[in-house]
Specification:
- The structure holds two protein chains of two kinds.
- Chain A contains 15 helices and two strands.
- By secondary structure, chain A is mainly alpha-helical.
- Chain A has four domains: 5-36; 43-91, no CATH class; 98-141; 171-255, no CATH class.
- Chain A has a two-stranded parallel ribbon with strand order 1-2.
- In chain A, helix 3 crosses helix 5 and helix 12 crosses helix 13 (204-216).
- Chain A is elongated, with a radius of gyration of 56 Å.
- In chain B, helix 3 packs across helix 4 (65-90).
- The radius of gyration of chain B is 19 Å and the shape is globular.
- Chain B starts with 6 loop residues before the first helix and ends with a helix.
- By secondary structure, chain B is mainly α.
- Classes of the chains: A mainly alpha, B mainly alpha.
């Protein structure tokens, strides 16, 4: 039964081609040769369990059929020897390649499972997201306490602001108090303030009153330059008093209600 | 290269002696490894060793001499390959990124030229599954039509048909590639 293999193989491939009617095809024969070249020259180095099996033979394999790989303690020392004594037809082709690949696979699977789990928790529970946002907010608040004191100096400035608008509000109370107070106090401010301010915002009656007052008091425009000085005021009521009492009471009464 | 298993080695292997086991492994495992490589198994060596771990304890039951032993071993190998393909279909393929394996890039001119010269695996991959199996078992495993029929659980006539069609398809692919290269 022994014999050289190559002529036999050549014969088998030629017989194949002959059987299929493709004998005269050099391309096909060369591709069959390439296919045969995939057979390695040497057998791969056996791993531990196979080496133990090769070393022990039927002493462990033949009698304990199913548990051939279950006798490593004794066979393991011998198990290395056949791997080294086999070099007649054995080379070490892929020692750690498979192990590294397996490690990479396991690592990738674990990392993927962890990210999937974390993503599922984050997507499913709103509490988780709220907690995370609270935690992040608290971290930023703790880490930056400085911004809080700064708003305090900002508060006094709004406190100052209301005082400033208060004086400008004076003219309107002055107009409102005009009927209660004696006429001489209110009249000097009215001609200066009412025509521009009340002419735009207030109802038409006061506007009409102002327009009516204009022909009655042609001299008023000259006084507005004076009211800045407090000394000029006593002089103004004397001249305005005759004109205003006749004009201002009517506008105030309809404007009051 | 160990050419062939002698009668003494065969009888020793069937009797369960370690020398017989080693001889069987040394002589037949290269063909099994080539069979798995030709069929595109990524870890062909591990699968080869799986086959022998399963085969060696059962050698005592083998009948039919050398041909029977070879048929038995490749029957186990064929079954393991079927299991491997089923498993590979179910499980996602995880591997380290290798730019050379990335099919989104065009091959370089050198690779094209080399591929047109060789690349039998790529050519085989374009064949029908059963045709490919018959050709690989016939050429790499060095089995006869009857042995292949037993391994694949088919009739010898069907195997013959598959072989003829597979060879015709392979010739077309090879000549087409030659025309494209020239």
């Amino acid at each position: 039964m022994t014999g050289t293999r190559e002529p036999q193989r050549e014969g088998s491939s030629q017989a194949m081609l002959r059987d299929s009617g493709l004998e005269a095809s050099p391309e096909l024969r060369s591709s069959l040769d390439q296919l045969r070249a995939l057979i390695p020259e040497l057998a791969p180095a056996p791993r531990a369990d196979l080496a133990a099996l090769l070393a022990a033979g039927a002493s462990s394999a033949g009698r304990s059929r199913g548990t051939t790989t279950a006798a490593p303690p004794i066979a393991s020392t011998d198990g290395l020897r056949p791997a080294e004594s086999l070099p007649a037809g054995v080379t070490r082709l892929a020692g750690d390649r498979g192990r590294k690949r397996r490690l990479a696979l396991v690592g990738g699977a674990v990392a993927g499972a962890m990210t999937l789990g974390a993503g599922a928790v984050a997507a499913s529970s709103e509490d988780f997201r709220e907690n995370i946002s609270k935690i992040v907010a608290s971290i930023f608040q703790q880490s930056s306490p400085a911004p809080e004191p700064t708003p305090e100096p900002a508060r006094p400035s709004p406190a100052d602001v209301p005082e400033a608008p208060a004086p400008p509000a004076g003219p309107s109370p002055a107009g409102a108090t005009a009927p209660g107070t004696p006429a001489p106090a209110a009249p000097p401010t009215l001609p200066a303030v009412v025509p521009p301010a009340a002419g735009q915002d207030h109802p038409t009656p006061s506007q009409r009153a102002a327009t009516r007052a204009v022909p009655a008091v042609p001299a008023i425009p000259k006084f507005p330059g004076v009211p800045g000085a407090g000394n000029g005021l006593p002089d103004v009521p004397d001249r305005l008093a005759p004109a205003l009492p006749g004009v201002t009471p009517p506008p105030v009464l309809p404007g009051g209600p | 290269m160990a050419e062939q298993l002698s009668d003494d080695e065969l009888s020793a292997a069937l009797a369960g002696e370690p020398s017989g086991f080693s001889a069987v492994y040394t002589v037949i495992s290269p063909a099994v490894l080539g069979y798995f490589r030709a069929r595109g198994v990524d870890d062909a060596e591990a699968l080869t060793q799986d086959v022998f771990v399963a085969v060696l304890p059962k050698l005592a039951k083998v009948t039919g001499g050398h041909a029977g032993l070879r048929t038995f071993i490749f029957s186990i190998a064929h079954a393991r390959l079927v299991d491997y393909h089923r498993r590979a279909e179910r499980t996602p393929y995880l591997a380290e990124y290798d730019p050379r394996d990335d099919t989104r890039y065009a091959a370089s001119a050198e690779d094209e030229a080399l591929g047109s010269l060789g690349g039998i695996s790529g050519t085989l991959a374009r064949l029908n599954e059963e045709q490919r199996e018959v050709l690989v078992l016939r050429i790499i495993a060095d089995l006869s039509i009857d042995q292949v029929a037993r391994v694949m659980d088919k009739s010898p006539g069907a195997v013959k048909q598959l072989q003829r069609r597979g060879l015709s398809a392979l010739r077309e692919l090879v000549t087409e590639k030659d025309h494209a290269a020239s």
